[in-house]
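step=encode ok
step=design start
structure_in=
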């Protein structure tokens, strides 16, 4: 049965549709689900099921796709961080689980690189633990991590994100070795690391004990979903503390529709032609970058790397000889247009993510960009 959609639902609500050139960020709706995912969610909405049984079966899919011992579907990567922390602190002990976030009598410290601290720390700290920082903002030595791990250390948290300096933190495999030598697990925040698709199995292969991903970014599942995968004993502990159980993860409720949608999207992601998709993103970036060709003071190029731009982006550099509007002013003008175009501006450049663009968006952005800089 075809999915019936309301074509003007946002218009009816008075909400503007936008062109998303920023990326799979939550504020702009994450990503767009394929029709197959939406249809699977519709089918899931038509029946009652035992949620524990559904979770177990979905966990098997997650484990198979990630190469982990076990898996669990949660409500986004932030929820995965909460459950990872809780699993490492309370384990499967029902008395400890019931007491959280009161960590009295439990190991209540989580070690993190100083360079990894970010707004998602709340997800870790809400379990009741204290974060112990190691290193500096731009460098960390192995002895600093080793000396920070003590009798109260419940886990080491490790963040993988495009905006982090690669040299500011120790490599994950080294962190795993140091932590495991001291009997401490490592959990990884890999929320926005897909693409590249190799990252779906990379961190488990590196020895991480738990890894969490967003389900609503590169995987293109429901925005309210996420993946937690890793060691079976720690996943079992996380399950006890998540929905539908009455524990610290109870408010992070993932429904049967989101579970089915997530595993459908995950299986599709595993089968996707990633090389062809990447080529399409590159082509879009080149079309946008070429819009400023020949304009004095502006230089457009397609860029991607494994640090700051994991998927192709169009980058417009504003050179010193440029005498027109600043990157911030150009971004504001694009946003004020119809349709609003959201891009990322920095001090001397403008970037457009291409993996979130729809058919025809690149041409619209190129035309509007020339118009805004006075060359349209």
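sequence_out=
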């Amino acid at each position: 049965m075809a999915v019936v959609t309301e074509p003007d639902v946002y218009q009816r609500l008075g909400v503007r549709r936008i062109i998303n050139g920023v990326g799979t960020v939550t504020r702009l709706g994450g990503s767009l689900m394929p029709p197959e995912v939406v249809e699977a969610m519709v089918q899931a909405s038509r029946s009652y099921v035992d949620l524990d049984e559904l979770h177990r079966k979905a966990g098997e899919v997650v484990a198979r796709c990630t190469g982990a011992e076990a898996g669990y579907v949660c409500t986004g990567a932030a929820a995965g961080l909460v459950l990872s922390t809780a699993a490492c602190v309370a384990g499967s002990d029902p008395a400890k689980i019931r007491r959280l976030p009161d960590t009295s009598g439990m190991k209540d410290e989580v070690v993190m690189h100083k360079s990894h601290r970010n707004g998602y720390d709340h997800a870790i700290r809400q379990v009741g633990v204290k974060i112990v920082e190691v290193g500096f903002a731009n460098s960390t030595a192995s002895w600093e991590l080793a000396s920070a791990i003590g009798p109260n250390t419940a886990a080491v948290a490790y963040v993988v994100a495009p905006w982090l300096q690669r040299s500011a933190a120790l490599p994950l495999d080294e962190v795993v070795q140091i932590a495991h030598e001291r009997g401490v697990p490592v959990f990884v925040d890999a929320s926005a690391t897909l693409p590249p698709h190799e990252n779906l199995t990379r961190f488990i292969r590196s020895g991480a004990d738990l890894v969490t991903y967003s389900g609503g970014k590169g995987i293109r599942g429901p925005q309210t979903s996420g993946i937690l995968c890793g060691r079976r004993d720690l996943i079992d502990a996380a399950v006890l503390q998540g929905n539908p159980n009455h524990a610290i993860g109870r408010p992070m409720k993932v429904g049967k529709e989101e579970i089915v949608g997530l595993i459908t999207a995950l299986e599709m992601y595993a089968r996707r032609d990633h090389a062809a998709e990447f080529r399409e993103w590159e082509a879009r970036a080149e079309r946008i970058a070429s819009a400023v060709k020949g304009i004095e003071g502006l230089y457009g190029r397609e860029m991607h790397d494994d640090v700051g731009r994991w998927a192709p982006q169009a980058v417009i550099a504003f050179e010193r000889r440029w005498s027109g509007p600043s990157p911030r002013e150009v971004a504001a003008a694009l946003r004020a247009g119809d349709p609003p175009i959201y891009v990322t501006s920095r001090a001397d450049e403008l970037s457009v993510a291409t993996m979130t663009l729809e058919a025809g968006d690149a041409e619209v952005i190129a035309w509007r960009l020339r118009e805004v800089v006075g060359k349209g």
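step=design ok
step=annotate ok -> The chain has 14 helices and 13 strands.
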